[in-house]
Amino acid sequence: MDTLKLCLLSFLIHAGKSDLYSYGNFCLKVHYGNYDWVDARHRCQKEGGDLIQIRDSGMQQFLQRVLSGQRSEDTGFWIGASDSESESHWKWVAGDPKMTYSHWSSGQGPSQSGFLFSDGGHEDCALMKIHDGFRWHDYECSLFLYHYSFICQHDKLVHSHTHHTNGQHGSTTVFIPQTFPDTTPLSTDAPIP
After folding, report:
1. Which domain, by its residues, includes 55?
2. Burial class (CB in 10 A: 0-12, 13-18, 19+), 18
3. 186 Cβ neighbours under 8 A, 6+ residues apart
4. What digits encode the pLDDT tens for the residues 159-170?
5. 102 found inside a domain
6. CA-CA distance, 152 to 45, in Å (whole number)?
7. Membrane-spanning residues where (predicted)?
8. How far is the C-alpha of 75 from the C-alpha of 148, rounded, in Å?
9. Would residue 124 count as lying in a domain?
10. Between these two residues, 192 and 120, which has the higher pLDDT value?
11. Total domains in the fold of the chain
């Protein structure tokens, strides 16, 4: 079965407008709506994943390609990068000590200059902005002004088995999406405990 179909099967239990994609060993789910970074991350984790971690230019270009074709009023998507632990030291939410790939806009991320009268010290969460060539920007994580759509990343589980055919040994690898523990449909207006 093709990996996109497997991703689709794993997400059928969740309601709401979203788009599903398969990239490498990941299922990607785009959630449309108005969320702060903290709520977006919580929703990804509730589904068994986390905010997307764009670790190479191939994934960045893939996202640009699929999101450019969307008819949406969205101007940005939250991604899984933060410098909340140490200012200007950006890390992926998975805890990697260093980001080896980035796509920051000038004056953003590690070289942030802040916004208006702020020094940028509270801009700890990353947003991929569509109208800036999908470059990344740092924003406050929970400010009421900053509500965007977001992208979740889920690992595909790899299941391998060996089979015998006419005395020949062989193996088949099948990608099986993760089963998510919570099957309650997500509501965009219900508070998260």
Report:
1. 3-177
2. middle
3. 14, 15, 16, 43, 46, 47
4. 544 555 565 555
5. yes
6. 9
7. none
8. 8
9. yes
10. 120
11. 1
